[in-house]
Input
Amino acid sequence: MSDVLAMSARTQETVVMTAPAGQHTIREHNLALVMRSIADGPRRSRAQLAEATGLTRATISGLVDELITSDLLIELEPDRSSRGRPGSPITLNPNGPAGLGVEVNVDYISACVVDLTGVVRAQRTELLDNRTVSPEQGIRQAVTLASAVRDEVGKLPIAGAALALPGLVDSDGVLRRAPNLPRWQDLDVAAEFSQMLGLDLQVDNEANLAALAELWYGEPRDDFVLVSAEIGIGAGIVLNRRLYRGVRGRAGELGHVVVDPTGPPCGCGSNGCLEQLAGQEAILRAAGVIVGDIGTSVADPHGAAEELNKRARSGDGRTLQALTEAGVALGVALAGMVNLLDIPAIVLGGIYADLGDWLLPTIDAELRRRVLASNTNVELSLATLGSSAAVRGSAGSVVAELIAKPH
Amino acid sequence: MSDVLAMSARTQETVVMTAPAGQHTIREHNLALVMRSIADGPRRSRAQLAEATGLTRATISGLVDELITSDLLIELEPDRSSRGRPGSPITLNPNGPAGLGVEVNVDYISACVVDLTGVVRAQRTELLDNRTVSPEQGIRQAVTLASAVRDEVGKLPIAGAALALPGLVDSDGVLRRAPNLPRWQDLDVAAEFSQMLGLDLQVDNEANLAALAELWYGEPRDDFVLVSAEIGIGAGIVLNRRLYRGVRGRAGELGHVVVDPTGPPCGCGSNGCLEQLAGQEAILRAAGVIVGDIGTSVADPHGAAEELNKRARSGDGRTLQALTEAGVALGVALAGMVNLLDIPAIVLGGIYADLGDWLLPTIDAELRRRVLASNTNVELSLATLGSSAAVRGSAGSVVAELIAKPH
Output
């Protein structure tokens, strides 16, 4: 036995001494193993699960029964079209515990419910300029919106919630700083939200959660950066299917990479940041779009993108110039990121997802010219989830946790 | 047993089915476990090793005997000052297999031998402007230098070699591109060197190897970026004590991060790259140092740094201005990197290690102003190994491999 325990030390890398694994840990591990092989793999019967996992039929049956009792799995009718004695396929329970996702962004709030199978069961978005209301009011309205979405799904049990915020979130759920929401500083948002919702709640940066949504619900990719742009610009860095958070959880602040050291001042205290050259407001300003002229809808990413698209399609020179300049700034920042990180794919999300016609050619040209091994292709594409990625990722992260830790 | 095997699947993350671990694998693993606990820990006797690893005394004795036979370990005289029955401490064998490190950089070549305990047993550096000689000649001279260093250590057995190059190296040892050595393109350097030296040889980027040298022989740090600057500028990114290589092994090209989108053209095809604003030649040029004026020694990093230090200390305005501008450019690029990666420490190596007096204050000011969470301290320091880091890391990587895979 000591040899086998020593084996496990290898995988832990730094641990030389290894404690024996108890029955409790093994059971928890095996529950997760069954959940994962059902979530990631094809439909399988108990017998097929035993074969795939290397566990005995008896062990598998005990584990599956336990997961059915917890409402995490259901057993379907046997597939009578298959040869031999048909097994009943086991699948995730679409009416089992679900995840509630909430997002408070600079100029809107959003909430959605995603069930265990990844399906969105309800989703609502409301415009709210959080720069002009207090954090208390922003939180209150987001909780009201979340409650409405929860009511909409009726009896579907909500296992927990996650909240996406446009700023640096510490691991204890405290929002340290949101450059575009100066009043949201050192706020224990997790505690407040959790209490008002009556649910366990995780808090994370919106670009991180948008990247996870792209990983789970977008094109299959192992390594990519999701650029999330609204008024602020953030990046979620996914390496080998995991979110890279940095040493203190503050990685991905692409919006504050300096593109022009002599450029305009930024709310963060620096100047010439990407956000000031390619953020939603920077593009609107450069295009000469005055928010008052076209109503409040322009404050919402879809409204802004729609207005820019309309003007660009009509050949408005100032708008086309603004989009080209934003594309160049983005290309410069992204080329630097690729040179540093050797990332093979970039997915443009948020408002950029709606502006691909104008941005992609310019960004692509900058990447080709500025990425060191120019013959290294960087795949450049548009996010399919657009501005709802972060809220989907929030709800999805609750579901992912249920699958990873079903005990 | 199936439960224990299922446990090990957890640590492999993506693998659901797990093959049984054979006796062969376990023996190899345990040899490595013993080597690592001797290399990383305090001096230990066989009994103490058994206690630390959880293996039986008999197993440990078999493993230690095997490693002594391979000349990797030696048993010292028992420590008679300790209480009770004294054990004989086991240590790494300083006369066991050693590593040969070689570096071919833009304007010099270097070679050294590092023994199993990490001590440099011989080291030589020669100026050679590889931009003016053919790759064949560069390789030939580097092999000659390496042979001289090998002769110097006499009977010390050389287990293998590693080569540091200033460019993108593919995992098969092919140098894809070296922006400052245009003729070194798509060269199978590993094969040529290995054959001429008669040794197994690994090839890697010089900044990566310099970062590993800093990790192994510098201040203890788990997460940092080593900036290696000579004529080119590279970065070795160490996350959680591992080198981050990127998806295709091309990460860390800090020198080609764009700092000024309207700046001077770069050999890489882009313009305004950090290298063009803060590389050795850019600083010399801006300071008005003409290489011909002060002899060939300025082409070598030490000579260049010495000349710049002399001029700066004498109050030469143009040199001080050149160093300030280089510091600003570096600060802008490094702040962007910290915003993206959330790295807590930056170590300045290569020529920068000798120019700290002039560069540190400027870089520090830029970081304070441009890193998003400005109250997040980024530790900024000078590399202790300076320009010999890469060649030390090369030799060290051979030794590290002997310790990690002693079978």
Summary: Chain B has 13 helices and 14 strands. Residues 317-341 of chain B form the longest helix (25 residues).
